[in-house]
Amino acid sequence: MVQAPSQQSLVLETLAHVPSLAHAVYGGIQDELKSRLEHHQLTAGWAKRRAHFSSDFEDSLSRLLSLAAEGKDPLARDRPAVVHHDSLSLSLVDENQALKDVAIAHVINTIEDNTRAELHQLGNFFGALRGIARPLKSDNPLRAAIFAHALSRAIEGVDLDAEGRYKLMRIAAAPLARHLQPIFTLLCRELRQAQLSGMLQSHGSAVKESDLRMRQFKALNQNPQAPNTTLDEVALLLDSVTRPHRLDEIASPRLGPGAPGGPKGGDLLSRLYDQILADNSLQPQLKVLMGRLQVAIVRLSRHDVTLLKRQDHPTWLLLNRIAAHGAGFGSPEDPGLKDFLQLVDRVIQPLIASEQPAASQFQQALVQVEQFIREQAEQRGQHSAVALQRLDREQQRQEWQRLLREQLQHQLDDANAGKLMRRFLLGPWVEVIAQAMVQFGRDSDEATTYVDLVDGLLHSVQPHADDTARQLLRARLPGLVQALEGGMDSIALPPLQRQAFMNELMRQHGRVLRGLPADETAPADSGPRRPALTPEEVLQQLLAERESQLPSRWAHERVDRGQLPTVPIGLFADERSPDARVALQDWINGMEIGNWYHLFVQSEWVTAQVAWISESRQLFLFVSQLPDDRHSLTRGALEQLVVNGLITMLEPEPLLQRAIGTLMQDLEQQR
Known about the structure:
Strands 1-2-6-5-4-3-7 form a 7-stranded mixed sheet. The chain is mainly α. The longest helix is centred in the middle third of the chain and has 37 residues, at 359-395. Helix content is 61%, strand content 6%.
């Protein structure tokens, strides 16, 4: 009797095809590299490792499939390295890691495009075996991500930089997808021959919420610059649909329920609110609260004509913000959601109780909601904030040192400082100031003290005209020396280097206190000097934010995510467009603490909230729906995700805009 196919048998059969698959992918890479001159930069690194590629890929894929055959999740152990900092573990995503994620996403998309029907049938079968009505991609032990990760691990051994491995992954994607298709087709044929066709099809009848969201995102990408429908446009369409036949029945479609002369079922506000409360993505508990708030909005509409003219009215912004934040919670029992519901209930009470609410009251409620969301997000990320702040400052150390040297160079050009003094201030002392900025903060008292000390030190070796000035200098020298010692201790300056400078400084101070020039070879004053920058001016140079530069590859190489959730990338994709860079920076600058996002980070899709943004806006902390799952991304990594369509807001379309869209569809059907 022939045994019915099982998860283990299908995975083991796939495992038997791994050697030939690895050889086919190797051949595809070889053919592509030979056929295109633009790949010449990859050939040297590939040549060193190509003899081992097939075995590396075979070993990597075999290990993953063996875990799947045992019923385990092959990628469950595929966790990225973490950065240990101040006793905290933080996953750090920099440009190289993001580049790897983009490559993996491209391979996954290529495989899915070539084997969509087969993967759908296999996913349904594996889901049926587990009793899952609507299986997710992660329930499929033969999903595209398994093969993409195996390929990534094999290519990591190739002697190329991150960009080179990224290009090699893109080259390998096509032959991998092409040779996987007949393997998956064979597995599906065996399932049909075993009379299991029902298990292949039964789960595909219902439209999953995730698939619906993917199609919505795809529609946005296809027409990213399509203007949103306005309230005025809805009002005009509603008027044309519900226009009465007699002139004495004419009334504005903007009137609220119960307004005198309002046509039955024809007012804009009530229909719009019906669409809001019917929104399937709105949390049920929030629907209840918004239903209670409707009476206050109706009262407002009777004396505020801008409510149904402005989509940026505080009332709509309040509803949009409540809905967007509520969408970030996966469970109605989430403690964070319960706290948020209590806050919303408390905030809307004064609005409901008011007989004639004003727009300013809704604006005040919006401010309270925004403040709560920000504080709640910051609380989620507070355990990582200190370490991330230090990490962010550490990343700026070299830039700070460069700026400090530039400013000190200008200052020393106008001072009669000896060579040893110049070497000390431009070398060790720049490190002292930068170390204080990293350890305590850019504008900390410690950093400011060390900056101020430069002026004091240079002044101490200038000629002092009379005994009174020299006596004042003598009194200040112990404190000056003590501060110098403390600064040198902070960077552990080697004893020989420290002693050489202190001996020279003591010699110069001795000459100045005797009324002599500090340096015997000091030139005579030849003219007026340029005024030195003040400490405040020195630090002011450090306040300017420096934009991270976008590598050219991100502007012309796009990942076609197809049905994966993505942001509209039309504005970001053309390097030659003067608007592309502005649009990219505006998108990232628009990220705020408390906002929820879908993003492809460290080789998987996650839903996460921005919990912290560094002062320089060069480092961002995301906390997922699982509080212990944290990801810190550099600005450069975010740029790469945005340009390649691998990050989007959790709700790319506000609640009001969704309601307008569905209402327009309903009215069009009634015409």
